[in-house]
Amino acid sequence: MNAPVVPSRALAGSTLVEPVLAVAGLRKSFSDREILQGLDFTLSPGQSTALIGANGSGKSTLLRCLVRLVEPTSGRIAMLGQDVVSLRPRDLRRFRAQVGIVWQRHNLVPRLSALSNVIHGVQARMSGPRAWFQSLAPAEVRAEAMACLDRVGLADRASARVDSISGGQQQRVAIARMLMQRPAFILADEPDASLDPQTGQEVMELLLGLVRQDGLSLLVISHRLEHTLAYSDRILGLANGRIALDLPTVQANAAALRRFFDHEGAA
Ligand SMILES: Nc1ncnc2c1ncn2[C@@H]1O[C@H](COP(=O)(O)OP(=O)(O)OP(=O)(O)O)[C@@H](O)[C@H]1O
Fold first, then answer.
1. Is residue 89 domain-shared with residue 119, that is, in the same domain?
2. Are residues 258 and 150 both part of a single domain?
3. Binding site membership of 47 for ligand 1 (Cβ less than 6 Å)
4. ipTM of the assembly?
5. Domain that holds residue 154
6. DSSP label of 113
7. Is 57 in the pocket of ligand 1 (CB under 6 A)?
8. Local confidence pLDDT in tens for the 267 residues of the chain
9. Could you list the residue ranges that cross the membrane (predicted)?
């Protein structure tokens, strides 16, 4: 039987803070390979947490399990006050609408404008043609989409076709689209991959700004050591199917982290 998730309270200064995420005994197997071998951790709200580990250590699997894009084999997940594993399909959809996901590949519609793509983000909250077509979107949705584009520094490219803007700008449009969901929690799976160093840095800065200025919580996978050190408050390291590292970023030692990136602990 699964252990109940009792969100342990974390002390932040003198205030008791409810975790935004509590994971207990999380396991995931593919065929006979157990990739996640019983993970336990909690995250406090309003923090940026970096998830690191060697190729194949299970980072993406963990992220996907948190929103049940991959079904956990066993274990408990409490996120944003929801018992995620027990959610039925309709409630699962509602829950997912509160979680913004940023992928390495952003799946924008290339021939549509940046603004139209951002408007599509409202589908998490609204269905039908009004969520699909810029011309049918209510004025308040269009205004909110413009505000999201402005938040990512692209208000002046609203009418540009997505296939005419740079890779970094496309990633920003994807982040603006995700903001249309009004998420409370962001999961980001290598948002800085396939971008040049400067652009990757700008995207990471943007995500950290959402934590610092907008109070969102972020769990971000990055293969770049310098980004992990610069853009997180806490670092979780996966190795051999377990959480093998958990420390505040200010205490991190670059050489010790390097081993996680290079070879340590594929599952
Ligand atoms: N749907 C699946 N079916 C079978 N095996 C899978 C599936 N998804 C992932 N795996 C395997 O699980 C292991 C962990 O994969 P995962 O993508 O989670 O690792 P990762 O740490 O994110 O790797 P990377 O850093 O290379 O992206 C890998 O061996 C992978 O091949």
1. no
2. no
3. no
4. 0.97
5. 108-182
6. B
7. yes
8. 344 443 444 444 445 678 999 999 999 999 989 999 999 999 999 999 999 999 999 999 999 999 999 999 999 999 999 999 999 999 999 999 999 999 988 789 999 999 999 998 887 666 655 555 555 568 888 899 999 999 999 999 999 999 999 999 999 999 999 999 999 999 999 998 878 889 999 999 999 999 999 999 999 998 899 999 999 999 999 998 999 999 999 999 888 888 877 765 444
9. none
